[in-house]
Specification:
Layout lengths: L7 E7 L16 E2 L2 E2 H11 L5 E5 L3 H7 L6 E5 L6 H6 L12 E6 L7 H13 L4 E7 L7 E5 L5 E5 L6 H4 L3 E3 L2 E5 H8 L15 H8 L4 E5 L12 H15 L9
Parallel strand pairs: 1-4, 1-6, 4-5, 7-12
Antiparallel strand pairs: 2-3, 6-11, 7-10, 7-11, 8-9, 8-10
Helix pairs in contact: 1-4
């Protein structure tokens, strides 16, 4: 019923430990609104039409498997070494052996405020512009820590520059990359092989893929579609509590009694 021209699947990066979270759990299974935070990412993907959600797991991956046991359409692949986000995505490629590769969401598993309607808009623009890659970006007051979206003089996409690699002028950019991607899957996997680790972190960044695709003449589309609130990071228990309250309020759920 669905061929590679119309199907959408998702690769969700979920391998990190989250060393600042406290405890010894994989980051993505800390709970937000009563569910592991990665559950909300999977839910949004499914509501936006993803048929397969392939989670790239690593640290204590068995706990991530257990946390999502029984979820339809969820599969797991292992990233035994954490060499960067491009390497994580590359670990999912064998899951498509003998399977159609259409468009792919590539998302972080620690962004539970993601909305299905944002992903739906992302894929709609991606297909309408016949893009090889489409990024949903956000303009936020304090962009510290995020990759910056660098545009050409005509307003089209030029590159994503990570915080540690940015110039002073680039650090002043308030349009950021919250890691909401839609790729032409076949073109993405071919491009990953061209990504180098020549950067401040010495890692293979998926953020380099759109720039490489543009450099080969492919269309890369940017849509400012992510509400600033949805970009909130979860890197420590305080941030976890903040995002928990936001999501509970959004869903009309009661908040824990100890929290105002």
């Amino acid at each position: 019923m669905t061929d590679e021209n119309t199907r959408i699947d998702a690769i969700i990066m979920a391998a990190g430990k989250g060393t600042r979270m406290g405890g010894d759990l994989p980051k993505v299974i800390h709970e937000v609104a009563g569910k592991p935070m990665v559950y909300w990412v999977v839910k949004a993907c499914k509501e936006a039409g993803a048929q397969r959600c392939i989670l790239v797991i690593g640290y204590k991956g068995e706990l991530v498997r257990e946390a999502l046991a029984g979820e339809d359409g969820v599969e797991f692949v292992e990233q035994t070494e954490q060499l960067g986000t491009a390497h994580a995505v590359q670990m999912a490629e064998p899951a498509f052996d003998g399977q159609p590769i259409g468009d792919l969401f590539v998302l972080a598993g620690d962004g539970p405020l993601i909305r299905a309607q944002t992903l739906s808009r992302l894929v709609e623009v991606h297909r309408r512009t016949n893009a090889a890659a489409t990024l949903a970006t956000s303009v936020i007051e304090d962009p510290t820590g995020y990759g910056r979206i660098v545009r050409d003089a005509d307003g089209t996409f030029d590159a994503i520059v990570e915080q540690k690699d940015a110039t002073d002028a680039q650090l002043a950019i308030q349009e950021v990359n919250p890691s909401y991607y839609c790729f032409d899957g076949q073109k993405m996997f071919k491009t990953i092989d061209q990504i180098s680790a020549n950067n401040a972190q010495g890692e293979y960044y998926i953020t380099d893929a759109p720039g490489i695709l543009k450099g080969t003449g492919q269309t890369v589309t940017v849509v400012d579609a992510v509400p600033p609130e949805d970009v909130l990071s979860i890197n420590n228990p305080d941030q976890l509590a903040t995002v928990d309250l936001i999501l509970r309020e959004r869903l009309g759920m009661p908040t824990p009694g100890a929290q105002a």
